[in-house]
Amino acid sequence: MKDSQVITKDIIAQHGLADDEYKKVIEILGREPNFTELGIFSVMWSEHCSYKSSRVHLKKLPTTGPRVVQGPGENAGAVDIGDGLCAVFKMESHNHPSFIEPYQGAATGVGGILRDIFTMGARPIALLDSLRFGLLDRPKNRHLLKGVVSGISAYGNCMGVPTVGGEIAFNEIYSNNPLVNVFCLGIARKDRLFKGTAAGVGNPVLYVGSKTGRDGIHGATMASDSFDEASESKRPTVQVGDPFTEKLLLEACLELMETDLLVGIQDMGAAGLTSSSCEMASRAGNGLELDLTHVPRREPGMTPYELMLSESQERMLMVAKQGKEDEVLRICRKWDLDAAVVGRVTGDGILRVKDQGKVVAEIPAKALAEDGPKYERPNAPPAYQEYLQALNFDALKEPKDYTATLLELLDAPTIASKRWVYQQYDHMVRTNSMVRPGSDAAVLRIKGTNKALAITADCNGRYCVLHPYMGGMIAVAEAARNLVCSGAEPIGLTDCLNFGNPERPEVMWQFILSVEGIADACQAFNVPVVSGNVSFYNETNGLNIYPTPIIGMVGLIEEADKAMTQWFKRAGDAIVLLGATREDVGGTEYLRVVHHREQGEPPYLNLDTEKTLHACTLKLIREGLVQSAHDCSDGGLAVALAECCVSVPTQPLGAVVRLTGYTIRRDALLFGESQSRVVLSVKADAADKVLTIAKAMGVPAAKIGTVGGERLVIDVEASKQASACRVDAELKTLLDRWGNSLERALNQA
Amino acid sequence: MNFGVIVFPGSNCDHDCTHVISSVLGQKAVPVWHKETSLAGLDAIILPGGFSYGDYLRTGAIARFSPVMGAIKTFASEGGMVLGICNGFQILLEAGLLPGAMLRNQSLSFICKDVHIKVENAATPFTGLCESGQVLKIPIAHADGNYYTDPVTLAALQANAQIIFRYCTPDGKVTPDANPNGSLDNIAGIRNAEGNVLGLMPHPERCAEDVLGNDDGRVIFLSMLDALKEAKLKTVVA
Hints:
Chain A has 749 residues and is an alpha+beta fold.
């Protein structure tokens, strides 16, 4: 048996354990580990499972609040939404597997996050995806995007959980390290939340779901390492998804949770049987004895090492009440699932693994789950930071033709419509989708109540690389603004922090500042972080991705019929701009597309200003004064106005806009990405009331135009400092450039 | 009235159908596990959408062997109303309760979006409350909705007014551009020769409530209910 293998320095290095870490293993065990134990330590102490580089910094995030039912530390977070219900949600990354094998990588990313949600006793009701790819002129990037989209589509559609939105951005920096982050929202009864705990000494431990195979062994370790040319050879570490089995597992688990049979439950995600067993035991302060002889398996001859480290998908570990195991097995068999009693809870705090009557591993559960190494890694700003932030805007020429520039921006895949993608996702199943993909946030009604939930995922990686603190704050602010524009009050968030190699001081510097930015914004908006995920080592051949802390946020709409969308509704409505426009051009999409620069300070954000804007927008929507509300983000005011015209799923509407009294440069006015701005359309006779309310609340507001016609016309009046200019485009041109751009980019030869 | 909603392993629109039957129609919805062999006490049967058995083979190819299918055949042969939506339609085709077969969408991709369908025959128990030629806006969500059959069967479907719904433009023109998946003759839904079994690819249960911004699908369920009540009335009178 392999377990008698001698542990050499090479083997330790292959397992990704540092010398000090290995010493600590010996200290904990009081002896050298055997091969199986080494494998168990290596996955549990991997960056992916142990958060060893991030833990100390994540403490800065606010995680409490009156609505918080479950904060970080469980399979997912939960916030109270009233009516005895809570919203259960989390976001996770599957970046590394998706680069190696885009279809299965993305598919199993969906599968993993779904299990995190239904493990809590919640029925998943919606998915979002945040994706990052390199530019689409490279065939490889088109292949990755198509593979990821079909993987998400195949898994989510089969599960019957709608994929209702998300975001996609393109930048060359993600060419060799795409990001695939999946967010899932579920609804659970507040008094029926389940946790991953192995309480009650003597209670039986059950294995439920797919058989264990040799797939995904060391997936967690792979996800904790950088990439190079040889990475594609790591394909066997990517798991293979089976959404049909997961659907059966979902229904079986929810049926089991209706009964009174279970004590605790946890999915076997990264590090499979190892992490689920030691984490459940550790949370309860107990031990757990596993007998691998009974683990259902796909093929004979699997070693304890392989069984403990396999990341085969669609598996759950459950702790049942004593004497109830047969009842649990009966329900599992109804759903044609493999299920077996594989162990019991013990009182000695030890994870003890047996195979064929022999003990093959014996490790304190808490040492694995909680006492892993923690690092306060060195951090320092990168040498190139000054260059990045230095932008001589005066040296850049203004466009000659503003209409052409607007069309060029609408055509940029980051801004263009993502219809080609979301049409491949079932975004309506479960019949809750009140606002489908294509507005600022998706809105789902909550059956049995008058309420609805809005969800969104946001982050601008370019802002974060230019100014990690500001970038982190803006990610939170934009997510909240998207919810507010949909009529929702933000009530909780989850984050998926995608960064480069934490062993590089500049990456740690980016990480620490981004987390501080997120923390400060959360504090200001009173939105707690209830779950999250860190993905480090997004580095290929020494090139690190932009810091990309994606924020998934949930908002509550007390009266579902007050849900709002971003597109213009009726000719004759007045267009009102809330918020002030500054000369914010650093880090904009305009700068990248037109001037081929990714430089400067990102847009300025003042948290108080932003918060007041949220309060004002919500008040106006709740009072029924608003016909549409759209956040100004990528591409600035001109792009926001164009989207208000053409993003409607039915008949587009034009607009005539006149911008007067602005002294800043015209490109900054039209395409700058000043924060804390919202474009509203309101009934003509309500415009004065809207302006009065906004001004009373201290929010700058101006009527800038009227909805209607077959064109979008934006006239900028001359001022002493700047000349007049004009955007004038037919709706059908806007629609074609914005609506079909992604499909064109993907179909290029 | 009692509507049975069949639950195959992998069905995922079963809850949506029971929701419409109970919350919108105010009728009783009974989930029927695929291993059941009796449909006693049920007035109509719905085969919901989803991915029965994962649809890893041809869609519906395994579900047709489910124990409940025998009972459904008997139910249909006795004149009971059977509605198959999306995967339910695919299963009815595989089971031979409706003629023809489904191919992959012409685009080879899953498509989820609103389409328009024209009611070609309003004289059926599923469309009784529609106007003939009425256009309904209803979402589709499938990868295999490209209906195909041989020319002889197609001629018979056309001759017997068995084509109930065709994909069309918003103003009711049946054109190639309005066809989302390559379906033969723009077919979106057909009935059997007897008229009591209907299959359609669009999802009426997804657009049966105002809160979702579209209730065009409700008329199909209301028509079924109307037909059931009428049939019951006739038995009472007889």
